[in-house]
Amino acid sequence: SFPSSVRLVEVGPRDGLQNEPDPIATSTKLELIDRLGGAGIRHIEAASFVSPKWVPQMADHREVMTGLSRRSGVTYSALTPNLRGLEAALECGIEEVAVFGAASETFSRKNINCSVAESLERFAPVLERAGKAGVRVRGYVSCVLGCPYEGEIAPAKVAEVSRALFEMGCYEVSLGDTIGTGTPLKAKRMLEAVAREIPMDKLAAHFHDTYGQAIANLYAVLEEGIAVIDSSVAGLGGCPYAKGAAGNVASEDVIYLLDGLGIETGIDLNALAATGNWITQAIGRPNRSKVGVALNAA
Ligand code: HMG
Ligand code: MG
User: Fold this and answer.
1) Which residues have C-beta under 5 Å from ligand 2, the single-atom ion?
2) Does residue 144 have its Cβ closer than 6 Å to ligand 1?
3) Which residues have C-beta within 8 Å of that of residue 159, sequence separation ≥ 6?
4) Complex ipTM value
């Protein structure tokens, strides 16, 4: 059955922008984050403490995290793949971070330059240090419904990596359909395999919309009981290590779906749509939210 409320994790400022080739001003990122908070979003993934050589667009992570005007009740998180990233994030006063692994060996190597097993070894001290600092850690698993290099990924592998992250201390595991190749039945089966290892209320859906299936996939996993959804305003984004990957499912489209199902989110759809319109104009990208385009035309 459907959950009565859903927590939306807005990943636009990180996942949405990380792949933009031209530098985006820190002030634009800060305004985006502020507008998202103003629309009622309570969890915003704001930056990424990764190598600026690998992901140049996230090089201003310190300026973003320290430049935020924090709203009460809003969590501002960032990716930290290793201890070095975590230490830098802690210096910025971060309260939540995320480690990111994969269910595909090849993707793991391309994305974070190590095997899946090695990545888990790197994450362990990050979780330990974060725990001591009172910082919550979220875990991502990429390629849960397919890999750009390996194709099909076994649900058992997704379950295994998810369980490892959860047992290490991640408070929540976000399941990433990195390249958006999933379909609803496949998404359900994958989720069933993971939910045998981890309680459903510790899982999140992080679906990209490359094949236009993300909303259908979300409907399928909502029915299974998923109550945390990652999305990106205006459907911004793409992963630098997954060629052809489109953005995350658009936040506006997700809220429209949830509103229609009578599922509570606390988010103001019109304010969100206006934010999508503003950021796409600011960075010269098309608005990939159908709901956003429709509302802004109305
Ligand atoms: P590495 O080469 O294995 O590590 O990279 P290293 O320790 O040997 O360091 C290499 C270089 O990076 C060195 O610099 C380090 O100083 C530097 P150099 O000596 O060459 O000048 N470095 C750092 N700089 C800043 N901050 C740090 C840091 N660590 C090392 N924290 C590493 C390993 C993970 C750092 C690298 O592979 C990397 O940065 N990868 C980027 C991965 C990334 O950001 N991918 C996109 C996000 S994941 C995603 O989008 C998927 C998701 O949305 C879910 C889904 O959709 O599936 C989450
Ligand atoms: Mg992603």
Assistant:
1) 15
2) no
3) 193, 194, 196, 197
4) 0.98
